[in-house]
Write the structure tokens for this entry.
Amino acid sequence: MSLKNKVTGLILAGGRGTRMGRVDKGLQPFRGATLVAHVLARLAPQVASVAINANRNLPQYQAVAGESPVLPDYLDGFAGPLAGLQVGLQFCPTGLLLTAPCDSPFFPLDMAERLHAAMEAEGADLAMAVTMEHDPEQPEAAPFRQPHPVFSLVKSSVLPQLETYLETGARRMEGFYKTLHVAEVLFDDSAAFGNINTLEDLHHHERSTAPAPSSRAPDADPAALAVEDAQRLICARVAPVEATEQLSLLAALDRVLAADIISPINVPAYDNSAMDGYALRGQDLPTEGASAKFKTIGVAYAGHPFTQAPHANECVRIMTGAAIPPGCDSVLPQELAANINDDDVTITHNAIRAGANLRRAGEDLQAGGIAIAQGKLLRPADLGLIASLGIGEVTVKRKLKVAFFSTGDELRSLGEKLEDGCVYDSNRYTLFGMLQRLGCEVIDMGVVRDDPQALEAALRQAAASADAIITSGGVSEGAADYTRDIMALLGDVAFWKLAMRPGRPLAFGKVQAGQDSAWLFGLPGNPVAVMVSFYLFARPALLRMMGADSALQTMQARATQAIRKRPGRTEYQRGIVSKSDDGTPQVRLTGAQGSGILSSMTEANCIVVLHHDQANVAAGQTVDVMLFDGLV
């Protein structure tokens, strides 16, 4: 058994520290996710499973943990790391438990392996990380040995000793560790075991280091998150809604199937003819170089079977879809008959082979088999197939409820007077159309002013009534100054700079309002950026919540012109794809590609995808294209 399968991970987030304000340290936005999400990402590859120890904001931690458990302390009163260790050991399904705090996202990816090696070598109960540190107030002094007890690998068998220790009222980790055989493991990089204790620390690390790994060109913004990384982070967090409903087949179009459709019958239900012709026994077909005359003894129609079994050199006139008469196993197409009279037909050698032109019972679907798998977005052909099975009702996922609004003092709704410096709000209508196409239950909340109280009220109202919230505007670096604080108060929301164009700013996370919560997608304000960001981030997440497939289909086409592209970001340019003279796909841009030029989207029938590391495209070079057909 590999070491990974022997170890369970435990993230310690159970404290009540307030140095970062009202939001738990582990839930603070950091590099496109939260601190605890980064710790989870480093811990997960080293262990078989992970649990989070937390005593506050359990829904927010559960959103990060996914299917992993969130474990409150067994002891009352925020008893410290040992209380977290206790509940972690009580849960631990493996022989070893690896711990890390929620505010330290830099620890080594080989920590479990190195701690385990020392534990085995010394026969220890527990192995902990140690680093050599310098006293900043005495820089000339020799370095000292600094233990890191919260970065430990401990045997689950020490639980009785821990509980005996806690029963004395003691809570210090150092005191408990003195009762064990401890192996200390020296790590060279002391910064790897540093923790983020204050908002100042958080912002320092946010500015000074790049986000989660992704390939970046030397001239790219090191703080910008790659598109693929953002998509993975979002996909890892959202999950399908559980609620379902029963609908009549006629009401189920464009709904997501919640349970497999099991065929109650064979389709076809019986062997039948694939064409008009003559049903006969294959054993009676003429041998090589010969022909044979067959007597016609009757006619089989669809819905009116002929039940008499023919004898040697007899046949039955049969129509497409009619049941094959008893004893017959082949059908001669009418046009291949050599000579047709009222009572007989001549068949030459090699006209057909035995078994030809039959549709066997269950050839399409067998009774008891899956006709349509759950997760399918039901289309007209699906309704027909289900009806062919005699099924009149289906179980579908309930409609996803999505609230949306635009933000900005400059926005005016249709019908309002347009003052100087103001614009009509187009994004709400674009979002409405895109959400309707997905089959969502749409909640239009209008325009929200650039005001913290108004934004907080709108988000609370939306979280109480919807599964997801989509906003446009208010997520740029300047506009996010107050929205970051408001969203942090309401839940786990990260603001990202994305390495893409159009659509650089994005906010994503979960908004909490009492017992209610909703996923938030804060899109940019420019019209084209709204559409591109929706298709790349919100659409796949919403479809995943609906339980449906979310893959975007691309094709390749030849560029008819040179396209300028800077490596280090993904670009999405509007294009028109057509067929060239030789029938192969070709694509040209619609013209100016500014993110505020919505007309470029109405003229286009596709988006040209220029990937992260891609440079300038020469005329004639092949590029990836995302077709609007089936998307918009």
Q: What stands out?
A: The longest strand covers residues 144-155. The two ends are 49 Å apart (CA to CA).
